[in-house]
């Protein structure tokens, strides 16, 4: 067997072995998933999905909880974009339906049903959206994987909300309100209504300032003390 034949065989073996070894070394898609803890306030996540693509989240709970899971898309989202939620509950065996995304080992996959598209309005962010998944699920203490995947044939953006029913915002989380407003505009699309909330906030601050000025409660600038001022005081 000449050297040319040996070189050809070696090249074929390398092309077969390298992809297999790279696939074996690549981490599972759920490794490094973002941790969400919806025990004190709602958790809102935004993402973009391609066709047959998924985004994993690691739900961490200190105690069992009944959580509301909701998926919303923009009102102008393409008809072929169909985001869905699947819950991976830890178990001794791996059981689940056929999915376009990988399933974590030793989990039971539960596909949440999709609902008829229901248009809702967010008063704070002045955004309209369509709810495609709205479900209540019981979760045990510990860690559970949640994945949002695209079952359609068109990419698009989604908003995932996980709520334990505590709608009140803590003072330490007040800084998230401007961030939520900004993210919602990018999610639903910027428009003239995007300016309503900043305008209302500016009007409220202006009204408070006028009220303080009317009662002489606003801070007055300190004037420098001069000789004429001292004589006037004396």
Description:
There is one protein chain. With 234 residues, the protein is an alpha+beta fold. Helix content is 26%, strand content 32%. The strands form 2 sheets. Strands 1-3-9-5-6 form a 5-stranded mixed beta sheet, with no helix packed on it. Strand 7 and strand 8 (127-139) form a beta hairpin. The longest helix is centred in the N-terminal third of the chain and has 23 residues, at 3-25. The N and C termini lie far apart (117 Å).
Write the layout of secondary structure elements.
Layout: H1 3-25, E1 34-36, E2 43-49, E3 54-61, E4 65-74, E5 83-90, E6 107-111, E7 118-122, E8 127-139, E9 142-150, E10 156-163, H2 176-188, H3 196-214, H4 227-233
Parallel strand pairs: 1-3
Antiparallel strand pairs: 2-10, 3-9, 4-8, 4-10, 5-6, 5-9, 7-8
Number of helical elements: 4
Helix-strand string: HEEEEEEEEEEHHH
Number of strands: 10
- What's the N-to-C terminus distance? 117 Å
Strand order of the largest sheet: 1-3-9-5-6
- How would a textbook summarize the main sheet? 5 strands, mixed
Rg measurement, Å: 28 Å
Share of helical residues? 25-40%
């Amino acid at each position: 067997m000449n050297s040319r034949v040996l070189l050809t065989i070696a090249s074929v073996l390398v092309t077969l072995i390298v992809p297999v070894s790279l696939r074996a070394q690549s981490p599972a898609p759920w490794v490094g998933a973002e941790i969400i803890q919806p025990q004190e306030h709602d958790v809102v996540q935004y993402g973009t999905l391609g066709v047959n693509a998924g985004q994993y989240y690691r739900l961490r709970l200190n105690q069992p909880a009944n959580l509301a899971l909701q998926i919303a898309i923009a009102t102008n989202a393409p008809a072929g974009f169909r985001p869905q939620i699947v819950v991976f509950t830890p178990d001794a065996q791996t059981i689940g339906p056929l999915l376009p995304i990988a399933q974590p080992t030793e989990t039971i996959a539960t596909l949440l049903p999709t609902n008829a598209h229901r248009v809702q309005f967010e008063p704070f962010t002045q955004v309209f959206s369509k709810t495609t998944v709205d479900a209540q699920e019981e979760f045990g203490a510990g860690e559970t994987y949640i994945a949002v995947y695209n079952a359609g044939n068109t990419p698009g953006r989604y908003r995932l909300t996980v709520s334990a029913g505590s709608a009140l915002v803590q003072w330490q989380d007040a800084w998230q309100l401007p961030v939520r407003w900004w993210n919602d505009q990018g999610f639903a699309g910027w428009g003239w209504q995007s300016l309503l909330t900043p305008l209302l906030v500016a009007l409220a601050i202006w009204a408070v300032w006028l009220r303080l000025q009317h009662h002489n409660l606003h801070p007055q600038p300190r004037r420098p003390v001069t000789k004429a001022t001292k004589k006037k005081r004396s």
